[in-house]
Amino acid sequence: CPLVCNNGVYEMDYDEMERLLKDPAVKLFLLCSPHNPVGRVWKREELLRIGKLCNENGVIVVADEIHGDLIFPPHQQVVYATLGEEYANNCVVCTAVSKTFNLAGLGCSNIFIPNPQLREKFSAQVTVEGYHNPPYFAYGATLAAYYKGAAWLDALLEHVKGNADWAVQYFKEHLPQASIPELEGTYLLWVDLRFLGLRGKEFASFLQDEAVVVLDKGKGFGAIADGCARINLAAPRADIVTAVENICRAANARL
Q1: Do 196 and 210 contact (CB within 8 A), yes or no?
Q2: Residue range 27-48: average pLDDT?
Q3: Each residue of 126-153: pLDDT tens digit?
Q4: pTM for the complete prediction?
């Protein structure tokens, strides 16, 4: 269900969502919260609207909240299961230390299922698939991250926000045609370069051969996003400077 962009702000298309949810073949709603790649932190009223539609149509919400620790004030993460009992009983909430603490290689995540019947079904399937025992080091690393990682996370958020602010300001000054939504959460900056008129292989060639950067192309997130790119801000400032300067130089050479 593609997002819609209204005056630079990405929003849910609730009409299309409702149409899709009415299909009896639809059993799960996969919610990305905060949203990757556009960096939206969904408000409580937005989540409630999703929840009501899903509950009405008997569709379970699977809330991917893996970026939920990476939020920039004044925005606040609303855990889906906290919306109310009727929503908690119809959801699966997924989190991990993978993104927040750069521990994806440990292969460990946290799955919260308030509904005991649904949790039992999930646990049984996890056992069948052989994922019931997390890697030995992942257990200790997860505890260490949650109990002792607050100062590190604060420093990370400050660094990412600094990179984001610098990049957005540079784009405004050197490539104002680029559209960039406010980064509310995650460490990923969404840059809309569709004004260049490049799509598919042409856009990929522009990034690789002209801008000399390796970014995730928007097409991978849906055909409507072809011509957009995602910049990972969780990197040294020097790398961000080089990447953004290269994009602006290459784009201006085409104007």
Answers
A1: no
A2: 98
A3: 999 988 788 889 999 999 999 999 999 9
A4: 0.93
Which residue has 């009983």 as its token pair? 89
Q: 161, exposed or middle or buried, with CB in 10 Å at 0-12, 13-18, 19+?
A: middle
Write the DSSP symbol of residue 134: -
Helix then strand count (H, E) for the chain reads: 8, 9
Cα dihedral sign, 241-246-249-254 = negative
Residue in this structure with the two tokens 């809309």, named with its chain if needed? 192
Q: What angle do CA 106, 126, 52 make, to 5 degrees?
A: 100
CA nearest neighbour of 233 among 35, 30, 39: 39
Instruction: State the amino acid at position 195 in one-letter form.
Output: F
Strand order across the beta sheet in which 216-217 lies: 188-192, 228-232, 216-217
pLDDT of residue 134: 82
Which DSSP helix (H) or strand (E) runs through 216? Answer: strand 216-217
The pair of structure tokens assigned to 156 is 């990370």
Given pLDDT bands bounded at 50, 70 and 90, which one contains residue 191? very high
- Counting every residue written for the chain, the total comes to 255
Q: Any idea of the CA torsion for 94, 161, 48, 16, to the nearest 10 degrees?
A: -90
What pLDDT, on the 0 to 100 scale, is given for residue 132? 78
For the chain, percent helix, then strand, then coil, each to nearest 5? Answer: 50, 15, 35
Q: Find all residues with CB under 8 Å of 208, minimum gap 6, and list them.
A: 214
SS3 category, 48: helix
**SS3 state at 124:** helix
List CB contacts of 198: < 8 A, sequence separation 6 or more. Answer: 206, 227
Contacts of 17 (CB under 8 A, 6+ apart): 1, 50, 53
